[in-house]
Write a structure and sequence with these properties.
By secondary structure, this protein is an alpha+beta fold. The chain contains two helices and nine strands, in the order ααβββββββββ. It has a single domain, classed as Lipocalin (Beta Barrel). An eight-stranded antiparallel beta barrel has the order 1-3-4-5-6-7-8-9.
Length: 146
């Protein structure tokens, strides 16, 4: 009986050390939401596929809109004035579900994946008219693909 208890204790101690060693080895922390979303945002050129303003299709106002991110800046084509040609950005918090642009506009990230991106923002200016840059005030939803 004494031999069985000694064997049981020895195997328990060995199991404890094995689990401790394995759980502390090579365990790199998972990337944060900010790291994941920043990597996806900056992984290529985002091309507009659809834009709605207050639920109404306004894609024609943003024909050819593209958006490219780096770690802290962005560039666009055919997005002005809603999307300035260049600017900087940062996440508003650790959840990485919205960014603040250098012009002060908060852009929500509704959906993000390697191939699709849905961004939302409230635009307060209407600039429709002859010879003027076009924009419509309201809640904008931009759907991008790669």
């Amino acid at each position: 009986m004494k031999k069985i208890n000694s064997l049981y204790i020895a195997s328990s101690v060995l199991l404890f050390f094995a689990v401790s060693v394995l759980s502390s080895c090579g365990g790199k922390d998972s990337p944060s939401a900010s790291e994941v979303n920043q990597g996806i945002l900056s992984s290529g050129t985002w091309k507009i596929s659809n834009v709605t303003v207050d639920g109404v299709d306004q894609t024609s106002l943003f024909t050819g809109l593209t958006l490219q991110f780096t770690a802290s800046s962005y560039t666009t084509t055919n997005g002005d004035p809603v999307w300035p040609a260049t600017g900087t950005w940062s996440f508003t918090d650790d959840t990485a579900t919205s960014v603040k642009r250098s012009d002060g506009v908060i852009v929500g990230i509704s959906s993000i994946s390697e191939t699709g991106l849905v961004l939302t923002l409230d635009w307060t200016k209407t600039t429709l008219g002859t010879g003027r840059v076009k924009s419509v005030a309201g809640a904008h939803v931009f759907t991008f693909t790669k």
